[in-house]
């Protein structure tokens, strides 16, 4: 969540005295997005830029509440990192074990062991929170 200064918020409210500071509905969300589009080219340090900052924060808060993005399951997390770093299954052998273990993990036939999780987290920087979930158990966050 972004933090805006009190000064920025006060300036915004002074410029927009009738503005509802909380986005409480889909219509309010849509209106805020339209206003953001209008203000997108505002120069830094202007009242318009302050308004853009406030609106972006309000939209971010609304989206976090109404459209949460859950964590990927462990296999999706591993596959995503493989794609990012252009890794093959063979590149995972140091982190998971033999070629057959890598294949079994990626196909969902074998669960990740605690040591595999540690190795993948430390070696490839995959979030431990992602790796510790049960496969197929995105948490809806």
Give an overview in words.
This protein is an all-alpha fold. The protein folds into two domains: 6-66; 74-131, Orthogonal Bundle (434 Repressor (Amino-terminal Domain)). 58% of the residues lie in helices and 0% in strands. The chain contains eight helices and no strands. The protein has helices spanning 6-15, 26-39, 47-66, 74-84, 93-96, 99-106, 114-124, 128-131. α1 (6-15) crosses α3 and α2 (26-39) packs antiparallel against α3. The longest helix is centred in the middle third of the chain and has 20 residues, at 47-66. It is elongated and about 65 Å long.
Summarize, please.
The chain is mainly α and 141 residues long.
What key phrases describe this protein's structure?
HTH cro/C1-type domain-containing protein; elongated; mainly alpha; Cro/C1-type_HTH; about 140 residues; Lambda_DNA-bd_dom_sf; Antitox_HigA; 434 Repressor (Amino-terminal Domain); about 0% strand; 8 helices
- Computed Rg: 22 Å
Structural domain tally: 2
What is the averaged pLDDT score?
A: 86
Mind summarizing the main beta sheet?
none
Strand content: under 5%
What is the terminal-to-terminal distance?
14 Å
E-strand count: 0
InterPro entries: Antitox_HigA (IPR039060), Cro/C1-type_HTH (IPR001387), Lambda_DNA-bd_dom_sf (IPR010982)
Protein name: HTH cro/C1-type domain-containing protein
Domain HTH cro/C1-type: 98-131
Helix-strand blueprint:
Blueprint: H1 6-15, H2 26-39, H3 47-66, H4 74-84, H5 93-96, H6 99-106, H7 114-124, H8 128-131
Helix pairs in contact: 1-3, 2-3
């Amino acid at each position: 969540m972004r933090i805006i200064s009190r000064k920025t918020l006060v300036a915004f409210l002074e410029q927009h005295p009738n503005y509802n500071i909380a986005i409480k509905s889909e219509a309010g969300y849509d209106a805020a997005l339209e206003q953001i589009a209008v203000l997108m080219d505002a120069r830094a340090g202007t009242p318009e830029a302050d308004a853009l900052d406030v609106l972006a924060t309000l939209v971010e808060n609304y989206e976090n509440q109404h459209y949460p993005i859950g964590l990927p399951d462990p296999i999706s997390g591993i596959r995503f990192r493989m794609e990012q770093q252009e890794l093959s299954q063979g590149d995972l052998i140091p982190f998971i074990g033999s070629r057959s273990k890598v294949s079994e993990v990626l196909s969902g036939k074998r669960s990740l062991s605690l040591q595999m999780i540690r190795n993948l987290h430390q070696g490839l920087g995959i979030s431990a929170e992602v790796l510790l979930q049960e496969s197929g158990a995105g948490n809806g966050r």
